[in-house]
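note to self: dont lose this again. the chain is below, predicted strucutre after it. 250 aa total, dont forget to put it in the shared folder this time
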Amino acid sequence: MKKYFLIFVFIITALLFFTACNDNVTITFDSCGGTEVSAIELTKGEPLRLPEPPTKENMYFAGWYTGPDGSGSEIKDGAFSNANITLYAYWTNNAQAGTQGGNITVSFDSNGGKCDTTEKILTAGSKIEDLPIPERNGYCFAGWYTEKKPADTSTVITKNFAFTEDITLYATWRKILTIEFSAPEAQNDEILGPISVLEKGTPADLPIPERNGYTFLYWYRHKDNTQVKITAQTKITEDMTLYAKWEKTE
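---
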């Protein structure tokens, strides 16, 4: 009887030892060509705390997955595992970054102006419906660009632009210029106050002065000792004073 009892105790002890030895699980990380990440051992039921992500030259880390190449399920902090498992790093290039939902930072450089918003944190692939509007004295905001000095062919960033990577946007400005008018002979000089025109813009609403015994022909400016005619199609690039050109009525 004693012999059977000892065998029974041995079996129970072995089972308890076996169970205890299987209370832990191992999470192995396959960085798929990135920097090495050490395995983690957890107690069953313990939430997973992911290690620092690996890096890979010219690639974007987009998360850990249960299958290679982004297959299977994405595993995030706080997940539970009751069995040993291998997680695979998923990589994308910059043009595709965010298809798996990573976070990115969009920074705003007001480029000489003032802006209440300096950055926004987004899920990669998202858009910004309410792009901030900066201010600058003497200038008109002309949009956000990826270049500090955009060329005429550059693309302005709009609310329909999908952000896929960390990026800095630069405010672009157009200087507000002033056109003044000189026509001391005019009877309606009250309409000849200065007007504001955007740099490289056109003065679409040039006033028309009136003078008894004369017909108004056009406005002109003095430049290099010559008279340069100014029309509604003229591109304005600096502050200027315009003078009335008259023709005497027969």
